[in-house]
Amino acid sequence: MADTAHFGAREVPLADKQALVDDVFHSVARRYDLMNDLMSFGLHRAWKDALVTAVDPSKNRPFALLDIAGGTGDVAMRVIAAGGAGTRATVCDINADMLAVGRERAAARGLGDAIIFTEANAEALPFKDKSFDAATIAFGIRNVPRIEAALAEAFRVIKIGGRFLCLEFSPVTVPGLDKLYDFYSFNVIPALGRAVVGDAQSYRYLVESIRRFPKPQDFAGMLRTAGFARVSYQLMTGGIVALHSGWRL
Ligand code: SAM
């Protein structure tokens, strides 16, 4: 039987998943950042702040970040703001529409060559071995069909002593909160998607894909298999989001 992958609640041929994911982000690109604020009540900013604090870009030495599945560049721009004058970020994403929004935002902020946007698949990064001080992926890994390949690639391009950080939604297990979260996710979020983007289906996929993503302890095991050391994770907001960390030592 051919390999399959989860596309939200559906099981699809592995080879078909990426095109389906790409349709989602083509559809939502222009309103992506607004929708993040609306859906999370602005909480995604706090989750990304925790990620940036962990990246801890140097204030006085050159620092090279790779933000994988970086979309509109939100995380990369936050890392640049937190770092010193020598901080540089490369945003890579498979979706040209998300990157186009990011380029416009970076130009409006006058970021110049501190940030570059590269169209690339997380499963086959067009970067040299050991070329980044840190690699991040925020709310991106669950969209990638071959997660193991993406983790191996992240490991390959991080310098020895560098860190990998992954922010991702996590299945909620707190009694009471799980019911509320399910109701909100399956009813309110698709309705918001319809109202703001004219597309409920893409947001239904995003919600369902969270349910299919591995539990934090299982994902930590995948990081170890990819070669990362000192693997750990921290749960935030009642376990809605997990910040995973691993080092290349
Ligand atoms: N990291 C950004 C953020 O936190 O705002 C964007 C996250 S968005 C939910 C997921 C992103 O993953 C989309 O921009 C999508 O195009 C990208 N993506 C999906 N599959 C990918 C792949 N195989 N390689 C690179 N990027 C991918």
Characterization of the model:
The protein is an alpha/beta fold. It has nine helices and nine strands. The protein has helices at residues 14-28, 32-40, 43-55, 74-82, 96-108, 147-157, 177-197, 200-212, 216-226; strands at residues 4-7, 10-13, 63-68, 87-93, 115-119, 132-138, 158-169, 229-236, 241-247. The chain has a seven-stranded mixed sheet with strand order 5-4-3-6-7-9-8, sandwiched between helices. A two-stranded antiparallel ribbon has the order 1-2. Strand 6 (132-138), helix 6 (147-157) and strand 7 form a beta-alpha-beta unit. It is globular and about 45 Å long. The relative contact order is 0.15. The model has no long low-confidence stretch (mean pLDDT 91). The chain binds S-adenosylmethionine. S-adenosylmethionine binds next to helix 1 and helix 4.
In short:
The protein has 249 residues and is α/β, with parallel strands linked by helices. The chain contains nine helices and nine strands.
Topology:
Blueprint: E1 4-7, E2 10-13, H1 14-28, H2 32-40, H3 43-55, E3 63-68, H4 74-82, E4 87-93, H5 96-108, E5 115-119, E6 132-138, H6 147-157, E7 158-169, H7 177-197, H8 200-212, H9 216-226, E8 229-236, E9 241-247
Parallel strand pairs: 3-4, 3-6, 4-5, 6-7
Antiparallel strand pairs: 1-2, 7-9, 8-9
Helix pairs in contact: 1-8, 3-4, 7-8
The chain binds S-adenosylmethionine.
Strand content: 15-25%
- Helix-strand pattern, N to C? EEHHHEHEHEEHEHHHEE
Q: Helices and strands: which structural class?
A: alpha/beta
Number of helices: 9
The largest beta-sheet arranges its strands as 5-4-3-6-7-9-8
What is the β-strand count? Answer: 9
Biggest sheet record:
7 strands, mixed
Small molecules in complex: S-adenosylmethionine
Radius of gyration: 17 Å
Quaternary state reads single chain
Report the mean per-residue pLDDT as an integer.
91
End-to-end separation in angstroms reads 38 Å
